């Protein structure tokens, strides 16, 4: 009768069994001690790995949803700058915010600034978190927050002249990077009785931050923040049954939430835009937007 191949592992001697048992225990202790000695380094590397992934995902989300207002690299225009020395060093003090800057950024992304309908910025900060009706999951909000916070080292190296921060006119104590009180300016420098050109109004209200005038709006080519307007003259009359193209565009400016295009968020287009132009200017803007041969 042949012995099975694993018979070589049979140990007959009691002494040999004890020796091999001690060796196994000692080897296990060495392995455990090695793991304990390297665990902190491994955990730090893994944490850095996950933080890097979060920043990478946040960069993609920021590019598609935030860059049109805050700039591709956080330099601002038409919204506030985020890659700013002032933002990272003084903003919380001016707001008397008790949490961290990371908390402030996350809160702002989550809930937006729905009360800032008539502020100095042409575009209102919308609500992004799905918890409050926005399109982003909690992890996506955290990823965008991580991407914004990733600018800290670069922002802290800015001189006052390099800092792109634009002072908030309604924040007590907000002197901006120059350390001098801001000069309050109107949204647009318009002389009494002057009728502005439609393209001037479109630019002054920062409409281009959300609407592309050159690209058509199709199923395969959708504006990331607001619908494209390259073919507005063709699609405006089809948006609401029984409403003409001019009536639709007019109402969309006067009442932005009256007819929100499918798959876009409500409350993103700021209210009160019609109050920032005369009725003649508003009608001229509507006519210009519907003109396929409009001057750019």
> How much strand?
under 5%
Q: How are helices and strands ordered from N to C?
A: HHHHHHHHHHH
Structural class determined from secondary elements: mainly alpha
Q: What value does the average pLDDT take?
A: 84
SS summary, helix count? 11
Helix content: 40-55%
Task: Extract low-pLDDT stretches.
Answer: 178-188
Which radius of gyration do the C-alpha atoms yield? 30 Å
Per the principal axes of the C-alpha atoms, what is the gross shape?
elongated
Q: Could you give a short account of the major beta sheet?
A: none
The beta-strand count equals: 0
Describe this structure as you would to a colleague.
The protein is an all-alpha fold. It is built from 11 helices and no strands. It has helices at residues 14-65, 67-70, 85-89, 91-95, 101-111, 138-149, 152-156, 198-204, 232-239, 245-254, 279-289. It is elongated.
